[in-house]
Q: What sequence folds into this?
């Protein structure tokens, strides 16, 4: 049994009178301790797929058929209370543009501590100490000073580290990362990717990493799934995909990656 | 055509017809004093009752519609023209003209509207024309800011830069190209502004500083409402209802237009 | 932060000068001198007295000189003497301010107390029953002329049901009441005026709050809050509300001109001795020193209000308060 098994997932959007299918019968598996990269262009449905896992979708989205089994349990059959036990604790997220995804009116320390207080029932002072430790874990310098900082005081890279600290606070089994490095510069991107793979080794979580960049996929993936217009069009190990791509879209993405020069 | 817009058009349409055809729909002369029938409640003879001088309320209100509508339209006309002028000069020429005009706008916005209007009325004596002009000259600031913002964003667009390159003169660019494109939000603002102007005029008339009796305005009919409280409910209800429905109508119209355009 | 406040304070000075300039120009718009109209109202005043008044008020001097003299005295809070009863204008204003302040502060308090929950509840379920009905209310109360509502309530609650007093601030037997009696009597007289002056502001603020809340709920950090596993209550009332409330702080300061304008009508209608009614009386009597003083003070208070709004917002929004490190 894999950690996450998505079968025949369908997600529609209702905009006014029109319905629009974002995810069209997606099958996806993630094993324990593995890094699966979900690759594809914007609009292919990658984000909606990953948001569906814990059902934190926008209000206009409707999940049609399908099942999402996490450790054998179908998440789509759980109600909100059931899902909240999973969110943040077993499955956590980090997003693109961390400064927008962090609340601007609370300090970064308190936002990390909030996750700890919620799932581990610790009092605030202790949670803040934990938060400081976590900030050290994600290699934020001088974490004690940074606890009271606000997201707009920190750089993009540091904010992303804060998000990672917040996500990993309760040692989740699955970390879903939606294009976390797309808005960062190349150097910072490399640092964050390195941080993620080291943390993965230490803490032992599975990583579902979404990106449109195959160079990132090449760097970190165990397996790759290519998504195109709401469907998974090709899946395989990293070497299989890069060595012998079959679907035309996979070939397009690889061609783009090779043009940039295999960074 | 959304529901809001439709409702607004119907209400304002009826109002306009009543105002235009006031002489035809009024059964009596609005100023005719009739000592035999003072403070009569609504009846078949007097649809809305009579006031303390025996004048038919319905006729007074029909003529009052004329007054309120005229004042509203002309006042807004004035404030729109003044606002477009200042706003386009500020937006188009920029630099010190912009700073100066915007400072002026800021200062004017500091005066509570009623305070300013009342002060001027104190100086210039209330009359229908004065009120129109005063309301117009104290409410142009919003339009000015709107136009300025639109022009600032339009200035950068290509078709304007093409005109500049072709050597078009300033007024031509402003009048033929910039202003017509900025007109959308201004129309919405004007419609909503008419509601505001009518509200201001009725407030002023109610205070005795607007339309002067014996000319009827919904606001000054309500002056009597104060002294006939509990005795003649129709003097309170009908004119106030008219003001309320009119403002509601213009608000619907304005919000409906906003939905259609934006 | 301090630098920001100082900069804003400095910027106020030219605005204040502009206010005094426009006020002065407005008053002197009339053809003829203020004393001419004064005399028209009061024919008993002989020509010599009029000339004396003119010299006294410096009305025979050229306009710019008059302006500077007036401004000079104004800065020292010498607003001249009322044409009506020759009392110092400052005194007349000061004795009326407390009542207007009390009414407006209580109104503001009530507006915020009610409008914020209404706005939030509408935003949380847009298009739902609560939202639709509160939207209808807002439209109605926006269009309702305040003085008409006042008249209707005065008629119904005051005259017909005799529940509330409709005029003045004291009952006839005021002098015989004890301390608490006097307090309650005055409070009772204020119920209707405060209610009526709240209504418009309530409609506006609840709409504004709804808008802010809806925008806050669409922000990316709401996804993060949900992803953490927070209850929907925490997501809405902790994460979204805090952000939605930020601009509302400015409304406090920006409400001042509206409240001042409203006080003119409401105080006159309810015969309350506040500065709104004072202004109305001054206008009726063409009491120019008083009119000018109130005009400038009204504008200055508005300016102050907007300054406080800006500073308040800068204090409350961490993005402005704590600049980049």
A:
């Amino acid at each position: 049994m894999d950690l996450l098994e998505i079968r025949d997932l369908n997600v529609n959007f209702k905009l006014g009178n029109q319905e629009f299918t974002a995810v069209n019968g997606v099958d996806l598996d993630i094993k324990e301790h593995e890094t699966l990269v979900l690759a594809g262009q914007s609009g292919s449905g990658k984000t909606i797929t990953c948001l569906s896992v814990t059902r934190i979708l926008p209000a206009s989205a409707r999940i049609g058929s399908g099942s999402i089994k996490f450790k054998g349990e179908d998440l789509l059959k759980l109600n909100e209370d059931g899902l909240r036990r999973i969110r943040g604790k077993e499955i956590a997220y980090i997003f693109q543009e961390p400064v927008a995804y962090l609340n601007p009116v609370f300090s970064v320390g308190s936002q990390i501590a909030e996750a700890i207080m919620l799932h581990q029932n610790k009092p605030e002072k202790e949670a803040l100490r934990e938060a400081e430790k976590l900030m050290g874990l994600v290699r934020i310098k001088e974490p004690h000073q940074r606890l009271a900082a606000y997201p707009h005081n920190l750089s993009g890279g540091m904010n992303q580290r804060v998000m990672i600290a917040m996500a990993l606070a309760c040692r989740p089994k699955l970390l879903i990362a939606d294009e976390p490095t797309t808005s960062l510069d190349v150097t910072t991107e490399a640092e964050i990717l390195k941080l993620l793979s080291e943390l993965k080794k230490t803490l032992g979580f599975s990583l579902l990493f979404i990106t449109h960049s195959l160079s990132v996929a090449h760097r970190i993936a165990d397996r790759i799934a290519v998504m195109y217009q709401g469907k998974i069009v090709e899946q395989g190990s990293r070497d299989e995909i890069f060595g012998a791509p079959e679907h035309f879209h996979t070939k397009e993405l690889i061609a783009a990656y090779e043009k940039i020069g295999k960074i | 055509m959304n529901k809001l817009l439709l409702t607004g058009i119907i209400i304002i349409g009826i109002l306009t017809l009543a105002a235009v055809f006031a002489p035809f729909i009024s059964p009596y002369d609005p100023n005719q004093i009739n000592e035999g029938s003072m403070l009569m409640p609504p009846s078949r003879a007097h649809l809305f009752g009579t006031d303390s001088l025996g004048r038919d309320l319905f006729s007074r209100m029909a003529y009052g519609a004329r007054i309120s509508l005229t004042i509203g339209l002309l006042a807004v006309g004035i404030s729109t023209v003044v606002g477009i002028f200042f706003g386009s000069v500020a937006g188009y020429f920029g630099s010190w003209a912009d700073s100066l005009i915007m400072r002026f706008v800021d200062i004017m916005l500091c005066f509570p509207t009623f305070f300013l209007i009342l002060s001027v009325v104190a100086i210039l004596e209330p009359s229908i024309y004065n009120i129109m002009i005063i309301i117009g000259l104290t409410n142009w600031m919003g339009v000015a800011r709107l136009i300025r913002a639109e022009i600032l964003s339009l200035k950068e667009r290509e078709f304007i830069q093409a005109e500049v390159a072709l050597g078009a003169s300033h007024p031509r660019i402003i009048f033929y190209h910039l202003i017509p494109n900025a007109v959308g939000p201004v129309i919405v603002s004007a419609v909503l502004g008419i509601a505001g102007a009518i509200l201001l005029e009725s407030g002023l008339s109610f205070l005795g500083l607007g339309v002067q009796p014996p000319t009827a305005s919904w606001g000054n009919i309500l002056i009597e409402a104060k002294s006939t409280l509990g005795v003649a409910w129709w003097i309170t209800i009908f004119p106030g209802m008219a003001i309320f429905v009119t403002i509601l109508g213009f608000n619907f119209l304005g919000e409906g237009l906003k939905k259609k355009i934006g | 932060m301090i630098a920001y406040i100082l900069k804003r304070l400095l910027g106020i000075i030219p605005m204040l000068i502009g206010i005094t300039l426009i006020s002065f120009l407005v008053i002197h718009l009339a053809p003829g001198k203020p004393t001419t109209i004064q005399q028209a109202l009061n024919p008993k005043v002989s020509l010599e007295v009029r000339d004396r008044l003119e010299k006294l008020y410096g009305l025979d001097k050229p306009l710019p000189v008059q302006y500077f003299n007036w401004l000079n005295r104004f800065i020292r809070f010498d607003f001249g003497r009322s044409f009506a009863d020759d009392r110092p204008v400052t005194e007349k204003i000061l004795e009326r301010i407390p009542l207007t302040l009390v009414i407006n502060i209580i109104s503001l308090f009530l507006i915020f107390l009610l409008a914020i929950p209404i706005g939030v509840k509408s935003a949380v379920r847009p298009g739902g029953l609560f939202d639709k009905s509160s939207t209808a209310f807002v439209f109605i109360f926006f269009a309702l002329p305040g003085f008409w509502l006042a008249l209707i309530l005065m008629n119904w609650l005051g005259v017909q049901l005799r529940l509330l007093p409709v005029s003045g601030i004291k009952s006839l037997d005021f002098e015989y009441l004890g301390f608490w009696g006097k307090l309650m009597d005055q409070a009772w007289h204020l119920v209707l005026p405060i209610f009526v002056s709240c209504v418009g502001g309530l409609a506006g603020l609840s709409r504004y709050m709804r808008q802010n809340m809806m925008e806050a709920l669409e922000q990316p950090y709401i996804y993060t809050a949900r992803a953490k596993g927070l209850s929907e209550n925490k997501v809405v009332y902790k994460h979204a509300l805090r952000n939605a409330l930020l601009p509302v702080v400015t409304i406090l300061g920006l409400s001042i001109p509206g409240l001042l304008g409203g006080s003119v009508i409401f105080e006159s209608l309810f015969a309350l001795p506040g500065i709104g009614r004072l202004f109305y009386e001054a206008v009726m009597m063409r009491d120019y020193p008083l009119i000018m003083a109130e005009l400038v003070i009204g504008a200055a208070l508005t300016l102050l209000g907007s300054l406080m709004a800006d500073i308040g917002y800068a204090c409350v929004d961490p993005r402005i308060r704590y600049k980049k490190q």
Q: What stands out?
A: The mean pLDDT of chain C is 84.
